[in-house]
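Running log. JK asked me to keep both predictions on one page so they can be read side by side. First protein, sequence followed by its tokens:
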Amino acid sequence: MSGRLRRSHRARYCAGLPHDRETLGRRIRLQMHPRAAFKPVPENSTKRPKPKPKSKPKPNLTGAEGLRARTPGHRDSKAAGWLYAARPRDCQPPGNSNSTQRDCLGASTSRSTPAAPRQDGSTRPCRTAPEACNSVKDQDERAPKPPDYKQHKMGAEDYSPPSTDIITLTRHVLTEGFKRREESAASGDLTILLSSLQTTCKFIESNVRKASLINLIGAAGNTNVQGEDQKKLDVLSNEIMINALRASGKTAVLVSEEDDEAIFVGEKEEGGTFESTKGKYCVVFDPLDGSSNIDAGVNIGTIFGIYLVKDGSKGTLEDVLRPGREMVAAGYCMYGSSANLVLTTGNGVNGYTLDNQIGEFILTHPNIRLPNRGKIYSINEGNSMYYHEPVLKYLDSIKFPKGEGAKPYSARYIGSMVADVHRTLLYGGIFGYPDDKKSKSGKLRMLYEAFPMALLTEQAGGLATTGTERILDIQPTSIHQRCPVFLGSKEDVQDLEVTLDVRPARNTTGSSNRRPTGI
């Protein structure tokens, strides 16, 4: 008899089913020769083999019975002619025997040892593990049950309902406006202007997300005043910003990275006049910073700064060419996995995240503060061959620190100022774009890139310098003037100044008298 048949016989024996010689012989013939399952009948005999009964559909069982019925090897007795229970090959049959056999757990046992009584009162040996040696009822009781929500009372630690008292950007700006109004009798013009700016950010964000779907990627075929190739999104974002700020009725002068000259609101131009009225604010902006990364899907953003027109002025270029410390508000909106707008109105820095479902910027990062020291530096080391020696010396000091237990800084550089500064504001460290032998005045524009980011950094507790003087103290001479930029955590920037041999004293109210370092 083959091993397979012996196992089948042993399983039948364990199950307590009939296993007489005639039945067993018929089963053996069926296994070896299916057509010889029944003995041949002589031609003159009136007996005919009984037809094999048709199998009935399996009942839809649940609980332990359903699990057992679905177990491989478990078959219906009427359908197949025998019940093959799902048991281990070496299951110990009932009764006494002198042979030694492995039990269900693999331990060597003697067949002469009587089987342990089961919980249901029988003495059949276990099929699998001891915990399975229970009746169907016991197994159903042990089966995992869904939680009874009627009996379970959720506590404060189990359930936290979403906040219904959300603070939107408009609400937050209005609150700050009321505080300023009580202090200095200010009007609500700045609130209206900021509301217009957030609308433009939503519009630009919508186009950035579907740029690949509506053919807004790629170059527009033009170059701006900086000599850079304009992208389609650059041109579109610039038009969105200009039209929205004009329509607000609160602006007098606009300065954009994409336009050669400043835009004076209300001036006549060919074809008629603008339908907007002049306001008392000047807005400088980069409509889409990091445009070289647009097609790659890297984080990009809009940077803006706001000046108040001087008393008695109707909005001239002199109202814009002023130090960054005179800005009344500055911020940026970063377009990435979410749209994040970071804003300061001179009373700290707050971050807002756009909720597309309700169409509002929600306050998610209140009172952003830079740590005193970070662990990340963000500088384009691809230009190291052009850097001046003091800058290279500083980079070596943070990459190869001296001292026991000192750890090097991690490098993170995205290539979009908005994204790099945003990370620096949240995690600390230092961001830098120095002047070098190739770009002797630096690369970043002072008025609408360096000034807004420097104001945000200092309002968050950090420092911003060109390497020789405080950025916010510089008097610009042209709207597209450039300057080197270093900004970030206070101690990191101070270490940079020490390495660059800059005097440690800082003038936070007026122009700086520190001597230049030649970088």
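And the second, directly underneath as requested:
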Amino acid sequence: MERRKILLGSGAALATALAGCSGSEGSGDDDSDDETKSITGSETESDDDGGNGDENGDESAAGDVPGFDESAFALESETLTVESIDRDGETVDIVAESETTNYEELLDELGSFVDDIDAAVVDADAFEDEVETLAWVVDHDGMKVVSFDVDVEWLINYRNGDRSRDEVASNVRETAE
């Protein structure tokens, strides 16, 4: 008799476990784009595409800078290395790591930055249409050394010969903090 109770109990447990694995709601159709119940119990439409939710409605990849070739962007600097380039709307955030904490030495390199940025701009029209500012932050061992902004209009004027490299560097220097 005791053996029957054990068999019956384990059979019920197995049936319960299998029922939980086989499906729900009796339909067996698990379409995540169908209606789902919200917390309030009302039915709502779900647009879950299985992604990670990082999409911002842009058709370009996250961080993609139109008209700018990140792989061609190399600083001609012995003290700086670009760590990241991320686009947020009309601003491109550039984080660089410095081997020095000398503020003036870093600002003196601004002229070469102008040429380095210009060399990476492959489609000036697309770049100018989508980007307004390059916001730089230069760190040393995790601490900010300097930050500055580069107005894209200054770069376009430089590219078109309407402004010298020194003029652009001077404008950028004025934004330095």
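Observation for JK regarding the second prediction: The first helix runs from residue 2 to 22.
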